[in-house]
Each structure stands twice: as structure tokens, then as C-alpha cells.
Design brief:
Strand 19 and strand 20 form a beta hairpin. It is globular and about 80 Å long. A 7-stranded mixed sheet has the order 10-11-8-18-15-16-17, with helices on both faces. A 5-stranded mixed sheet has the order 13-21-20-19-14. The chain folds into 3 domains: about 190 residues, 2-Layer Sandwich (Aldehyde Oxidoreductase, domain 4); about 160 residues, Aldehyde Oxidoreductase, domain 4, CATH 3.30.365.10; about 325 residues, Aldehyde Oxidoreductase, domain 4 (2-Layer Sandwich), CATH 3.30.365.10. The protein has 19 helices and 27 strands. It is α+β, with helices and mostly antiparallel strands and about 725 residues long.
Length: about 725
């Protein structure tokens, strides 16, 4: 579909959704762009305005990680447009379905935004460029090969004629798109590969940016909800009469079998009423579950006979049995919450003929499918308008809050309903970073070489919890992130002649979910801290011990941080710790510098981190992602723990689920070492080296080995 204006694009979107009321703000800047004058879609990715402005459509979600800017850079690079005139907008998943998924995958997670869509978005920009140049060549009746373009200005050097993208867009849109395009060599990039300012910074700073929680629609009402405190439980009864007369209350409604919502004229009135609403809950057998019973289940799994094998080489059991020295340790990792600053929220408008949803979502197509199912309407009569996310970290890959919003709106046809979860609801009804324990056994020969390693993980499976159809013969490959023998999700970095890494799956009723970094956070602590234990047991320096075993690319980033940090030469009273991992297609390492006071207070002074992401699309943004990931990783290490009592999550707000404060944040120095021969991710890999590098430094400072987090649960006071 070519040659249409963006308003026509929006109208077509409305047709797919059963008719969008264009008076509503739909969250991707259409009002501002229309004000700039006529515009033409050259292809699905590129819209050109009469004033030569370029609108680039971005299918992936922006949640602070910079994907929106990075993808726009890639399109703009091939398009050869003027970066100062670039803006962006989201297409809708409904339109994507209607156009045979022309924008590809709408899911944003696993650091896949750029690494899995770079090729086709670059091709989209290149195709649009060729069409615009061909349109000018046709107008001048000259070969396109004789034309040149830079910053949206097309020239014909032999005759000196010039024109702009804005003048050629309508003619270009009528052309047949090229079947093949030649992409630029990254060494020739002038927009991509540069540390350009993010496109979404200014509206965030000025307050102009609209998030899902900010959205307003004509006649909109606000809903607050309470779901059964025990995940998987249900309500038995609720007494709506007790709150029906409270200020602003419009309706008290059931939401599925487990939730009750109050719809009111303001969030405060809805929240106050729903909290006062008498509800009788039935948690079922899950109400008997506690952190202690879960821990016992996981401990049993450490010695179970049956387990799924993720990585195996040689005979680890025999090698360890014949080793000169054996080292064994058991580690643990708790449930953790995503704790996004913006709690779950979605706005839904339902009529018997259509259902529209405005939502901050990491997976627009999943949200669309959820909305259609909840509305009991065909997908063609539904659509989702994506908003920028006030934090995602994997949590907004689920669409439970979208489903709830639609179920409420369905009971009030024609009225837009904005559902906002309270912080307490958000904290206690997440999809939590899964809980695991890990038993490691290593065998050292007489020369201090690691000859055998066994690693048994016991714990929850994310795929079993969220996507059981994705299990591979019952096994969850996500559990083995960073431990696999190969694959972009994480190659185990150590050459160990005899190796066995397996998983005893032990699931609970608590929903497990993808949490920034996912299982590499567990696994990197387990491996990198145990490697330090082995180095200590063999009387070797941890860096030298690793150097004897690490594969080249793993060693490259580790050497880089060791050299930059001055490893082994820390100032008096300070100590270094190391960690490395390969995950989400990138190689990363970290060296932390810490001190511990006599009272046991840990101060993290600095972390030097190295990343080889293959291709660096925006180096400045990579630096920010590295620093941002350490905020998350250090929060998890210092404070992150969700406990279970009577089947329910106990932590309800930031007073019981603490996060890193600004004055606790260390200096971060990011080393970007792109090799240029592959495309890796940057949003998640470095988070994994934060905790183990600090924990290893703590051992050097105190002699105390920390094998479980959060650190707040341990006494580090000096004797």
C-alpha cells in the first residue's frame, strides 16, 4: 500500500479497528505531524512531509532503552535524509496484521529491538531512498545512477538540477518498490553508529510526553482493581452496597473470576472505594504456600535424579571423583519484582462493533490478541495504540492488565475506561523474576586446573509459567542462559573438559516472568562467584585463573576491564572483583571497586564495564544502557527480594521493596568494543556482571562468601 497520507493511514487503521474516533489523542504524535502539512507514505517505514520532514515508523516499543532512536538512525542512514528533520510514530498492531505484518515483530524484549530487526528496517530506508531518487530521475528523464542524494536533497550533477524528498514523495509512492537494495557499509555511516541525542528526551524533559497513565479521552472514567492476593485464587463474594454511595463511584464490577473493580470519576475515588470494598477471597491450596515450603522444594531438587541437561561434555562425575581437590557450594536467588515506576495501566473503549485499547505494552500483537479475546470480537475489529512505557523490564510483555481493562470496559459499552493498578496491586500481582537454587561442584587437578564442573539448578521455569507450548521436550532453554554450549542467548565462556549443567524444574503457583536480564542474572552469580571460589581454593588470582580457561572473545572483554580498572592495584582499603558473561548476543565483563566499613557498610565506588555488541548503533546510548543496567542489577543485589506468606507476596510498596538510591550509585565507566561482525543486544547483558563482580570484591574485602541475595540480609560487620 503506497501513496497515502498519514491521515489516510490513520483512517485505514480505524477501519481495521472498526472505526477510530480521530478526535482522541492516540499516542503517536499524529496531531503534531498533521499540523506540519501534507504528507505521503513512501513505504511502510517512511512518511515524507511537504516541508521535507521525515516520519519514521517504529514497531518496537520504547521504554527508556533507546530503541526508538536507534532504529530511526538505521532507517535514516539508508534513507539519506536530514536527521534534524526526523520524527517517529508507532504503527498499530492491527494495521500490521491488516498489512500482512509489514512491520515484522512488535515484541520488544530480550534486547532484540535492534539486533533482530536491523536488517529489514535498513532495507525499508534503502528502498524508500531508491524510490525517491528514481522519482526525481524520472521527472528529469535521466538515469537514476547519475543522481546523488544527501540529507534529503536530490541532485543531478551533470545538469545541476536539484529537488527535495518533500517534492518527490507523491511520485515516489506510486513506483514499484525495488526487489533488492544495496545497504551501506557501516564504515560509511554518518547517522547510525554515532552517539546522537535521543529523539524522546526533549518531550520527556518538558513534560510533553504522554505515557499510558497520562492519557485522557472524552468522557473517560477511571477504574481501580483488587485481585485475589493469592495468585490463581478467586473471589467468593463482594458487597458492592458498602461502597456504592462513596464519592464519585459509578460502578462496582467483577473482573473475571478473581478480580473486583470500582469505576469512578477519579483515580483517588476509585482507589479509596476499592480498598474499602468488603471482599471474601478463596486462595485454595496455594494459600498454604510460604517461602519456607518453596525453599524446601528447591532444596529437594538439588539432589533429584531427574533433570534436564543444558550443557554436557565428557564425564563430569568421574573427573570430579578423580580430582586432587574438590570444591562445593550452594547458591540461591529469590523472587524479584520489576517495580516499574509506572504501575500497570491500560485504557479501553468497547462497543459491540469494536474494541480499542491504549496501552504501554512491550508486545503490541499479544496485547491485540488479548483485547480481541477479552472483547469476544474478531481481531479485525480491535486495535491497540501503543504508548511509551514508564518502565517495562519484561513486565509489560504480559497483557493481563490489558485483559482486565477490556473486561471492565465491556461492562460499560461506549465509555472509555482507564484502569490504573495501585502500587500495592502492582507489587503483589507481577510475573516475578523466578526463584532458583544452584549446587556447584568443581574438581581441581594437582596443578590447580579445573578438570570437572557440575552445576545443578533447581527452580522455576518462566516458559512453564507463561508459555508452556515453548518448552522443548519439557525443558526450558531460558533457564540455561549464559550456560549453553552455543547460541546467541549466551555461550558458556569456559573451556572445561568435563562439564554437566542441568535443571531440576520445580514450579510454584507464583507466576514467573521475564525480568531484565532474565536467567543470566542468576547464572552469572552462580558461575562467576564459584569460579572465584575455585581460584581461591587453588591459590590462584581470580583473573589469572580465568585466563587459563576463557574463550577468546570472553577473555577480550575481561582483559579490557581489568586493565582499565587497574585490577589488583586498588587504593588502600578498596578491593576489586571480576565477572564476565556472554548473553543476548553480546560479550560483557565488569570490574567493581568497593570498600566495606567496620560496621559492615558496603560502598560501591566504581564499576568498569566492557561490552562487545558486534555493531554499535548509538555508542552514547550503549553507555547509558550499561549504567542503567547497573542501577537495576545493584538494586537486585542489595535489596531485591519478594517473600511469600499464606500464598501471597508480602512486599507491597517501596517501603518493603527497596531500590538503589542516587547517592548509592557508583561511578560507571563503559568500554564499548564493537568488533563489527555480528549484531548483539545491549539493554540486558551487562546487568548480569553487576552483582557477581561486587560479591567477589566483598570476599576479597572481608573473607566472607555471599551465596545468596539480597545483601541486606547478610551481616558484613568486621569481627
Amino acid at each position: 500500500m503506497t501513496g497515502i497520507s498519514r491521515r489516510a493511514f490513520l483512517v485505514e487503521t480505524a477501519a481495521v479497528a472498526g472505526g477510530l474516533s480521530l478526535g482522541f489523542h492516540i499516542g503517536f504524535g499524529a496531531d503534531e505531524a498533521r499540523a506540519a502539512g501534507p504528507e505521503t507514505e513512501v513505504n511502510a517505514w517512511v512518511v515524507v512531509r511537504a516541508d521535507d520532514g521525515v516520519v519514521i515508523r517504529i514497531a518496537r516499543s520504547e521504554m527508556g532503552q533507546g530503541t526508538l532512536t536507534g532504529l530511526a538512525q538505521l532507517v535514516a542512514e539508508e534513507l539519506e535524509c536530514d536527521w534534524s528533520k526526523v520524527s517517529t510514530e508507532y504503527p498499530t498492531p492491527g494495521q500490521n496484521v491488516a498489512r500482512n505484518r509489514v512491520w515484522g515483530n512488535f515484541s520488544t524484549g530480550g534486547s532484540r529491538g535492534i539486533r533482530e530487526s536491523h536488517l529489514y528496517v535498513r532495507q525499508g530506508g534503502a528502498a524508500a531512498r531508491e524510490m525517491l531518487v528514481q522519482a526525481a530521475a524520472n521527472a528529469w528523464k535521466v538515469p537514476a545512477a547519475e543522481c546523488h542524494v544527501a540529507k534529503g536533497l536530490i541532485t543531478h550533477p551533470p545538469t545541476g538540477r536539484k529537488t527535495t524528498y518533500g517534492k518527490m514523495a507523491a511520485a515516489a509512492a506510486k513506483l514499484e518498490p525495488p526487489k533488492e537494495v544495496k545497504l551501506k557499509d557501516p564504515k560509511d555511516w554518518t547517522i547510525a553508529g554515532k552517539g546522537l541525542k535521543r529523539l524522546d528526551t526533549a518531550p520527556k524533559v518538558t513534560g510533553k510526553q504522554i505515557y499510558g497513565i497520562d492519557l485522557t479521552l472524552p468522557g473517560m472514567l477511571i477504574a481501580a482493581i483488587r485481585d485475589c492476593p493469592v495468585i490463581g485464587g478467586k473471589f467468593v463474594s463482594f458487597d458492592r452496597a458498602k461502597v456504592a454511595g462513596m464519592p464519585g463511584v459509578k460502578r462496582v464490577l467483577p473482573v473475571g473470576a478473581s478480580g473486583v473493580a470500582v469505576v469512578a470519576d477519579s483515580f483517588w475515588n476509585a482507589k479509596t472505594a476499592v480498598e474499602a470494598l468488603p471482599i471474601v477471597w478463596d486462595g485454595g491450596e496455594s494459600a498454604k504456600v510460604s517461602s519456607a515450603t518453596i525453599a524446601a522444594t528447591l532444596k529437594e531438587g538439588l539432589g533429584a535424579e531427574q533433570a534436564y541437561i543444558g550443557n554436557k561434555a565428557g564425564d563430569a562425575g568421574a573427573a570430579i571423583a578423580g580430582a586432587a581437590k574438590t570444591v562445593e557450594a550452594t547458591y540461591g536467588y529469590p523472587y524479584q519484582n520489576h517495580a516499574t515506576m509506572e504501575p500497570m495501566t491500560a485504557t479501553a473503549l468497547y462497543t459491540p462493533d469494536k474494541c480499542e485499547v491504549w496501552a504501554p505494552t512491550q508486545n503490541g500483537e499479544a496485547a491485540l490478541a488479548t483485547a480481541a479475546e477479552a472483547a469476544e470480537l474478531p481481531v479485525a475489529k480491535c486495535d491497540v495504540y501503543k504508548m511509551l512505557l514508564g518502565g517495562g523490564f519484561g513486565r509489560r510483555g504480559r497483557s493481563d492488565y490489558v485483559r482486565q481493562a477490556v473486561l471492565i470496559a465491556k461492562q460499560m459499552p461506549g465509555t472509555p475506561i482507564k484502569l490504573i493498578w495501585t502500587r500495592e496491586e502492582d507489587m503483589t500481582h507481577g510475573a516475578y523474576h523466578p526463584i532458583t537454587q544452584c549446587k556447584l561442584t568443581g574438581g581441581l587437578d594437582a596443578a590447580g586446573r579445573l578438570v570437572g564442573l557440575k552445576m545443578r539448578i533447581s527452580g522455576q521455569s518462566i516458559l512453564a509459567s507463561l508459555s508452556p507450548q515453548s518448552l522443548q521436550n519439557g525443558m526450558d532453554p531460558v533457564v540455561f542462559q549464559g550456560l549453553n554450549p552455543g547460541g546467541a542467548e549466551g555461550v558458556f565462556g569456559y573451556e572445561v573438559p568435563h562439564l554437566l549443567i542441568d535443571h531440576a524444574m520445580r514450579n510454584t503457583h507464583i507466576t514467573a516472568g521475564f525480568w531484565r536480564g532474565v536467567n543470566i542474572n542468576h547464572n552469572t552469580i552462580y558461575v562467576e562467584c564459584f569460579i572465584d571460589e575455585l581460584a581461591h581454593a587453588s591459590g590462584q588470582d581470580p583473573l589469572e585463573f580465568r585466563r587459563r580457561m576463557l574463550k577468546p572473545r570472553h577473555l577480550e572483554v575481561l582483559n579490557a576491564v581489568a586493565e582499565k580498572a587497574g585490577y589488583g592495584k586498588a587504593p588502600a582499603g578498596r578491593y576489586h572483583g571480576l565477572a564476565q558473561v556472554m548473553a543476548f548476543g553480546s560479550y560483557v565483563a565488569g570490574c567493581s571497586e568497593i570498600s566495606v566499613s567496620p560496621e559492615g557498610k558496603v560502598t560501591i565506588h566504581k564499576i568498569v564495564a566492557a561490552t562487545n555488541p558486534g555493531v554499535a548503533v548509538n555508542p552514547a546510548q550503549i553507555e547509558r544502557q550499561v549504567a542503567g543496567s547497573f542501577v537495576y542489577g545493584l538494586s537486585a543485589m542489595l535489596y531485591g527480594q519478594c517473600t511469600v506468606k499464606d500464598g501471597a507476596i508480602e512486599q507491597t510498596n517501596f517501603d518493603t521493596y527497596n531500590v538503589l538510591r542516587m547517592d548509592e550509585m557508583p561511578e560507571v565507566e563503559a568500554l564499548i568494543l564493537p568488533s563489527g561482525d555480528f549484531w548483539g543486544g545491549v539493554g540486558e547483558p551487562t546487568i548480569a556482571v553487576a552483582a557477581p563482580s561486587v560479591l567477589n570484591a566483598i570476599f576479597r574485602a572481608t573473607g566472607k562468601r555471599i551465596r545468596s541475595i539480597p545483601l541486606s540480609q547478610h551481616d558484613l560487620k568486621q569481627a
